[in-house]
Amino acid sequence: MLKLAASTQFDLPTLGKSMHELLCALFPLPRSITGDGLRATISAINDILPLNVSEVPSGERVFDWIVPPEWAIDEAYLEDEAGRRIVDWRESNLHVIGYSEAVDAWFSLDELRPHLHSLPDRPEWVPYRTSYYKRDWGFCIAHRVLGTLPEGRYHAVIRSRLFPGSLTLAETLIPGESSEEILIFAHDCHPSLSNDNLSGVVVAAHLAAYLREQPTRFSYRFVFAPATIGSIAWLARNESVLPRVRAGLVLSLLGAPGPFHYKTSRAGDREIDAAAKHVLATDYPGSCLLPFMPWGYDERQFCSPGIDLPMGRLTRVPNGEFAEYHTSADDTSFVTAEALGEAWLACLRIFEAVERNQYYVNLLPKGEPQLGRRGLYRSIGGYQDVPERQLALLWVLNQSDGNSSMLDIAHKSGLPFRLIGDAADDLEAVGLLALAASARCQMKP
Amino acid sequence: MLKLAASTQFDLPTLGKSMHELLCALFPLPRSITGDGLRATISAINDILPLNVSEVPSGERVFDWIVPPEWAIDEAYLEDEAGRRIVDWRESNLHVIGYSEAVDAWFSLDELRPHLHSLPDRPEWVPYRTSYYKRDWGFCIAHRVLGTLPEGRYHAVIRSRLFPGSLTLAETLIPGESSEEILIFAHDCHPSLSNDNLSGVVVAAHLAAYLREQPTRFSYRFVFAPATIGSIAWLARNESVLPRVRAGLVLSLLGAPGPFHYKTSRAGDREIDAAAKHVLATDYPGSCLLPFMPWGYDERQFCSPGIDLPMGRLTRVPNGEFAEYHTSADDTSFVTAEALGEAWLACLRIFEAVERNQYYVNLLPKGEPQLGRRGLYRSIGGYQDVPERQLALLWVLNQSDGNSSMLDIAHKSGLPFRLIGDAADDLEAVGLLALAASARCQMKP
Amino acid sequence: MLKLAASTQFDLPTLGKSMHELLCALFPLPRSITGDGLRATISAINDILPLNVSEVPSGERVFDWIVPPEWAIDEAYLEDEAGRRIVDWRESNLHVIGYSEAVDAWFSLDELRPHLHSLPDRPEWVPYRTSYYKRDWGFCIAHRVLGTLPEGRYHAVIRSRLFPGSLTLAETLIPGESSEEILIFAHDCHPSLSNDNLSGVVVAAHLAAYLREQPTRFSYRFVFAPATIGSIAWLARNESVLPRVRAGLVLSLLGAPGPFHYKTSRAGDREIDAAAKHVLATDYPGSCLLPFMPWGYDERQFCSPGIDLPMGRLTRVPNGEFAEYHTSADDTSFVTAEALGEAWLACLRIFEAVERNQYYVNLLPKGEPQLGRRGLYRSIGGYQDVPERQLALLWVLNQSDGNSSMLDIAHKSGLPFRLIGDAADDLEAVGLLALAASARCQMKP
């Protein structure tokens, strides 16, 4: 079982630096929902974490969707009559709309405009745009640059191909004592954007690398896949896994400093929700709780009514609340090693809370047991106060009738979960507490 | 099914004017809980809405009550020794206590005082008083006038009769697709008072006139009857109807400007409560929600424990909160055409919410269906925001597992009900949604 | 059934004075969890309330605990080389740690320090300390006095004995109409401390003396026993009684002025909780509600998971929130006759609320019954307001479907419980209300 003792020390600066380095290495790769940029990303992660890779062929039906053709791109630019390149895909893969069809033709500026995307409010930034399911092509360009373009003819060149290929899924399963699983998902399809979602990818990869070395109560499954079509494809191919998922997290937007935001599962009151709420409220003051809504990342799929997994989503400041979202400003300087390291530990603490969220029964439930003769209670009486540690023992004894979990008791007592968990360990050690019968231990419906 | 599209336009000024004109026509009629004034009122409504009229004979037992004798009055006045009329029933039927016995005698002022009712705090206004079940007689008089009366002898004349007659009930049933009914009740027994309750009467009559011409999912039953004894008599005679009542409203005090006040059903969480709360919160900011209490209008009967219909009450400013209540100041100038028109539309919107409050099931519940290829989703991705219209589609899909109604989803999403309902229509049209099996569609217990 | 009519008058000043006098008489007795000081206390109470006394032998196992040896003390003092007594047990029995072993030896000041207990923050006060289960000895001393002690030799003398004896329990059972019991517990083991808990002892004794003379619906059991080991011993010996306990209160800290604090039962929603909340909110504005926590007085035992009685705790300002707690400043001047008298009445009102918390059924549930002809409703209609008394009648009629108790109705209506109870009496008297069938009357689980 995963236990982070109060004394457990992590070298978060080093860990954060390692994550940021991986992020920087992944940044320039030309990812999309299919293709070699995506494969190169998986391959780079594989260096620190062995992954099982599978390919879902173009045209395969996954629930209501059909896996699209694979997209490859070799070159893309827009040049003026003088041959000056206005935008060039080699400078930033954001400059081309994802899944643009090939084009090689001259246009007037007016003819071109419907194919040029910019951000009037952020004239220096290049937006990120895609058109996966409708054949189209286009360039993304800084609004300031767009404004300087004189009338004239422009040469639009996109050397891309759409062809029967495949979509790449990657995952690893780290076995624990139980076959029940904690499922962690990070989307890996966005091109040169850091917070969204290389941050989620590197945090997930480093969590997996750590958990592989730890004894854990539950098994941990990490899935890296493109957003939407990727999670849908994974779900469609792994329906038999779903009944084993006890809890899960979608990870994204973890690298830019700012308070954590936990978005609950669809039901809102699952074990993962209680664990995340408690850890964030206790250890990360200022964190925000978001109710479930069917807009966001891949929790839209994991929490669809026919799937309905007990999964929440952990981000820092969520999309829609920071201007850099889906723009060239979400670059490697937008995320910090410190924010990544802190996010890594927050996830670990949430996993710990799920692992330690046992149901116990008090074996001497009539009156309080005499803790003093078991060395668990101070011997001189009469004091006004009671140490928090002893209070935790009394709470665990009082509430352990098999119906209250460690998180329930932490919530009711207002004491930190770890104190409650440690009190339970102490009481179990002296024979006053035992795990509740298996029926009680099951996850809530 | 009743659907008010966002584009639906009503000519509320004309409608309000029509209601106010009817109110003015009804105002002078000498109503009471029985008698020809009541019959004349029903007859006038009949001109715009055919009503079924029934008479409940005096002496008939209705639950715990007995229908009282019918009351008729031809003349009533109080004059001094000089023959000057201090009050005269012909000037205002408020001047005589409802159900006064006949009297024709001379009294000293002191002898008379127990029979004179006035409002010391409102010296210009005449109060409204009744004595239906205890034989008594009396006059209601402006306190200022009362103060000017010198000692002397006064001639009290009330030419009234109490005799075996009947109490008049009137109703209409407008059939809908279903035999389940929406029940609307307005008390029609108060004499020359406008807000209480000619306002409820004219709004109800105009709602009925409109709904007769509309296709509706449910049947609508409008009942006009005297307060208390009338609703009790109607209930006693119509117990077989009650199981079909899916929702209902008691209408009163709708003509004087002021915020809407919705008083919930006895349980407080019925479909009508959810519908009224949503419509008022969304479309009529500043509206107030009142918890159920067993004091007020005829909801006291409809929500008695042995009847317990899912009915709420809609008023504007409720009794007890405006000084003009049950006084001569509640005259035709106290109510406005605008307030009546707005109330009419608010009721209609509440009915619409009940009609459209379906339970659906998502037919492709695993993952999100691909809305883009069905023309329901924009094709270029990557934007920071999502249009409200698309959000409504996602909410309906996510929540439609047969357990959440349209009102539930509107409440959870914070989106307007109409947007949710329209999203459901769109999804049903493309085959993604279907009405839940009948068991789910039933009204809540 | 216990009914305190609105007109019931109590001579609280005299009653408070009587309680304070008993408290002063008990104050100097050298109480501990065993011994003759405890027996003398019980004997003094016995003068106003016949008690059944039982002795639990040292060494008897009571649940997880073993009754300790009996402790007797004849003399204790600390003197300097000049024979001056620094502290003397005869001056205050707080000067010796409860259950100190015998000692008669000379020590340097440094050797002595581990055996001297003082309060640096409250230099004039002597703390109260005990060491029941770990053999130790020591003196409690004002910190100012401790500071004046010069280096030198000190003679520590404690002439105490620990020997096989017994622990004294005392109780009385006052039979009511039903064998269901209200259980009242007050710990009686603290030496010369007034608020904690002679206040609870004298209030309990006077409640019992009063209730013996009243007709009551339930039986009342008053238990006086040492804290912790005493309540555990009583519970262990009286398990067969527990199923009959319908409600109960632990009484302590009732003598020092300050707002009432009611701490709920373990479940928090039992009948006693509803009764106490209502009485305190209605009659004692400023009272506080404390959620259950497993730290405090003997509710720790009564609310342990294997006992889990529906018992709350009534105090004024609780321990931990007043500086005098467990110090010599908790003397007879710290408590007042007025505070004791008020606490006595508050308890009685809570008992009344439990006794009168019936479930009724409206025998004419369809529509409102005609209250006017039964003399329960004013005959002239039309008024703006409704008297509170009539409102109570309407609430009781509307809610009495067998599922709502008098306390439920008081809570929902916002009316005082007594008004609701009196309305039910009136309605029962005219045949409109009847007690619900027995199944409904049972206490909640």
| SS class of chain A | alpha/beta
Write down the Rg of chain A.
26 Å
Averaging pLDDT over every residue of chain A, what do you get? 95
What is the tally of helical segments of chain A? 13
Tally of domains of chain A? 3
Sheet with most strands of chain A: 8 strands, mixed
What do we call the CATH homologous superfamily of the largest domain in chain A? Zn peptidases
How many individual β-strands of chain A? 19
The biggest chain-chain interface is: A-B, 36 and 27 residues
Strand fraction of chain A: 15-25%
**Helical residue percent band of chain A:** 25-40%
Looking at the overall shape, the CATH architecture of the largest domain in chain A is 3-Layer(aba) Sandwich
3D structure, described in words:
The structure is a homotrimer. By secondary structure, chain A is α/β, with parallel strands linked by helices. Chain A has three domains: about 5-65 and about 165-355, Aminopeptidase (3-Layer(aba) Sandwich), CATH 3.40.630; about 70-165, 3-Layer(bba) Sandwich (Glucose Oxidase, domain 1), CATH 3.50.30.90; about 360-440, Arc Repressor Mutant, subunit A (Orthogonal Bundle). Helices cover about 30% and strands about 20% of the residues of chain A. The first copy, chain A, contains 13 helices and 19 strands. The first copy, chain A, has helices at about 10-25, 35-45, 110, 145-150, 195-210, 230-235, 270-285, 300, 335-355, 390-400, 405-415, 415-430, 440, and strands spanning about 50-55, 60, 65, 70-80, 85-90, 105-110, 115, 140, 155-165, 165-175, 180-185, 220-225, 245-250, 260-265, 290, 310-315, 360, 400-405, 435. An eight-stranded mixed beta sheet of chain A has the order 1-10-12-11-13-16-14-15, with helices on both faces. Chains A and B meet through helix 6 of A and helix 10 of B.
